[in-house]
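Tokens in:
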């Protein structure tokens, strides 16, 4: 199916399924009120039928390939970290119309989850005394640079990262602090630290690497590892839920 780049306006749906099984869980984990003011989170596409099953698919991006997976696996409820609609209007693409036509509900937590993801990432790297604020986490570090790189690649299930080694660091250095911000973090300071994010502009790298080492995982690769962690938390917290991590959700960027 070719999704053309134009938009249609859909009428309001007659009623929506509230995804009642997951909303209390996300409210406890990290309320939607924690999302950035510009973000579009919550139930973005409601189903036009009542559906009480507890089978959910987790994905970072809801793409046509993931939609095909939902149809093949008969999944009607999707938790997509990135919003399938970034604005709250009902002007939607033909792809979004296809989601609605297949009676699939889509919930997006996006930046409401970022502090949880950042804290979890630093915990996996062995940091302690972790604090979160403004969609970023900072933790104390006691590991060598090379060991942090190995742990980061193992956590994110990647074979390589981009590394901008600071002018003041070596691979055996033990910087006392690590900052983490999944996706595309915004950093303005820091000193003698490691900064971990998905992507960063060349000019910010040049500015920050004078006193900090920067580790770039790529945008969605810095986020996708969390889906398996989220699956375990949901299955431990929601009775009789079935959670499937998408097999078709992959990074749009490849290394050649």
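Residues out:
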């Amino acid at each position: 199916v070719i999704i053309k780049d134009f938009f249609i306006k859909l009428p309001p749906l007659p009623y929506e399924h509230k995804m009642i099984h997951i909303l209390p869980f996300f409210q406890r984990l990290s309320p939607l009120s924690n999302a950035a003011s510009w973000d579009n989170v919550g139930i973005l596409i409601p189903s036009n039928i009542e559906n009480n099953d507890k089978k959910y698919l987790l994905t970072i991006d809801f793409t046509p390939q993931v939609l095909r997976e939902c149809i093949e696996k008969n999944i009607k409820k999707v938790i997509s970290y990135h919003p399938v609609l970034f604005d709250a209007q009902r002007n939607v693409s033909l792809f979004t119309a296809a989601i609605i036509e297949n009676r699939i509900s889509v919930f997006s937590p996006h930046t409401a989850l970022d502090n949880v993801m950042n804290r979890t990432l630093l915990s996996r790297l062995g940091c302690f005394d972790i604090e979160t604020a403004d969609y970023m986490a900072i933790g104390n570090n006691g590991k060598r640079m090379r060991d942090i790189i190995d742990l980061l690649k193992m956590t994110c299930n990647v074979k390589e990262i981009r590394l901008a080694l600071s002018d003041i660091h070596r691979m055996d250095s033990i910087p006392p602090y690590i900052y983490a911000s999944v996706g595309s973090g915004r950093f303005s300071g820091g000193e003698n630290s490691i900064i971990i994010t998905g992507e960063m502009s060349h000019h910010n790298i040049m500015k920050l690497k004078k006193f900090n080492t920067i580790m770039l995982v790529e945008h969605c690769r810095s986020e996708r590892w969390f889906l398996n962690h989220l699956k375990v938390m949901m299955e431990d917290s929601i009775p009789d839920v079935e959670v499937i991590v998408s097999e078709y959700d992959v990074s749009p960027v490849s290394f050649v």
